[in-house]
Write a structure and sequence with these properties.
Blueprint: H1 15-28, H2 34-39, H3 46-57, H4 68-81, H5 85-89, H6 97-113, H7 160-163, H8 198-206, H9 211-218, H10 239-250, H11 265-279, H12 310-313, H13 320-330, H14 339-342, H15 373-379
Helix pairs in contact: 1-10, 11-13
The structure holds a DNA duplex.
DNA sequence: AAATCTCTCAACCGCATGTAA
DNA sequence: TTTACATGCGGTTGAGAGATT
């Protein structure tokens, strides 16, 4: 199946190709993808290698159907970010942008055809749910007006279907929520809030010395709550085989997944840091009714993962307030790694150190405490330090 | 049972961006 | 400053599987 352009192969990857790529990454780390073809027998272009690694070969990818919680996150984030699949997927550990994109383009798009709205009530609507948000308009700096519609109730998420209301498709609001600016993009370690070069991190992680931690990284047990079991089968060229490759390639290696990082704990820190920096010396005002606050309501185990992005730190300061509001819309006050991330096992997602504890650091919140969570639940507003578990 | 349709997902492509020489 | 290269992202496509007729 050789394609043109230097006899580079195209099409589906074989198990042998996967093994070559995994072996290469194990030795050299990620990045410099074009060198793969030069230094191995793999006849794939760099882009193809990168894509294969990112979407199928890298450790701790989650496969299987999206959970209701993941679907909720996708829909909610899409309502804010539009087709920023990479950003959205950054909030879903183990999920790729391609998966999120496919999900949106199929399941959710189907709902439109069925006359069901893409977004639950209370969620701001992306200008065009099937395409990227429009370029920043003169109105783009405006926050969505407070909605009189019922807030999205995560508690109703007994099933993916129930997540969506049965109301006819809403008229998409003309404004665009300007939140695609500050949160996502680059992974951040728990040890440092500084952006990390993924390649450097990768290299670092490959030399990590913690066999026990490594084991938890690659141990498939309980790692996928969606039910995609670990099936070592060399005959399978796709996901299952990929996991077999991992097992073989990394099981007894000093390998640490460069992607999983600190179970996202540092990401929250980075977000809060950024938000704090942005909001410093500025009065923080929170919308009393803010759908973003619904995040933490649905379950005590819910998690929301934010990631920092260098580019977004350079947002013009004139938009600080609305940016901050947007950030806050996205960040639950207390981030906790969900069981589906940890596979029900604190160690299964394999942070190399005990840095996960940073997830339970409500004191990190730079935001004012308004009242108790219970009270806030009643009034429709919540504080960052007092999260309602379930209202 | 066969044909057709629909859906899902992996992969490719083009463009944008970042970076080093 | 320019250029070339590497990487990342989002849109699109096509094959295969399953569902429907």
């Amino acid at each position: 199946m050789s394609g043109g352009g230097g006899d580079l192969k195209k099409g589906p990857w074989s198990a042998a190709e996967d093994a070559i790529l995994v072996e290469y990454v194990k030795k050299h780390g990620e990045g410099n993808w074009n060198a793969v073809q030069r230094n191995t027998s793999l006849m794939r272009c760099g882009k193809s290698c990168r894509l294969r690694w990112a979407n199928h070969l890298r450790p701790n990818l989650k496969k299987g159907a999206f959970t209701p919680e993941e679907e909720r996150i996708i829909v909610e984030l899409h309502s804010k970010l539009g087709n920023k699949w990479a950003r959205i997927s950054a909030h879903l550990p183990g999920r790729t942008d391609n998966e999120v994109k496919n999900y949106w383009n199929t399941r959710v798009k189907r709902r439109l055809r069925q006359g069901l709205p893409l977004y639950p009530h209370g969620l701001p609507k992306s200008p065009n749910p099937l395409s990227s948000p429009s370029p920043p308009s003169p109105l783009s700096h405006l926050k969505p007006p407070p909605t009189s519609l019922p807030l999205f109730d995560p508690l109703s998420l007994s099933s993916p279907t129930s997540f969506f209301s049965l109301h006819p498709p809403s008229v998409l609001s003309p404004h665009r929520v300007t939140t695609e600016n500050s949160l996502l993009g680059q992974s951040v370690s728990a040890q440092s809030l500084a952006p990390i070069d993924p390649f450097h991190l990768s290299t670092m992680c490959f030399n990590f010395e913690s066999p026990s931690a490594i084991q938890t990284q690659i141990e498939p047990k309980g790692y996928d709550p969606c039910g995609s079991a670990f099936v070592p089968n060399s005959e399978l060229p796709s996901n299952q085989f990929c996991q077999k490759i991992y097992k073989e390639a990394f099981d007894d290696q000093n390998f640490m997944n460069p992607y999983i990082g600190p179970s996202n704990s540092g990401l929250l820190d980075a977000l809060l840091q950024e938000a704090h920096a942005r909001g410093e010396n500025k009065k923080f005002k929170r919308e009393s009714v803010d759908f973003g606050l619904q995040w933490e309501n649905s379950s005590s185990e819910n998690s929301y993962v934010g990631v920092n992005k260098k580019e977004e730190q350079e947002e013009e300061m004139s938009s600080t307030n609305e940016d901050l509001s947007s950030i806050l819309d996205l960040i639950p006050p207390l981030v906790r790694v969900p069981n589906w991330c940890n596979g029900g096992d604190e160690a299964s997602m394999g942070q190399s150190s005990a840095n996960n504890t940073s997830l339970d650091m409500p004191q990190l919140s730079p935001f004012p405490v308004v009242g108790s969570a219970e009270e806030d639940c009643k009034t429709g507003s919540f504080t960052w330090d007092h999260l309602p578990r379930i209202c």
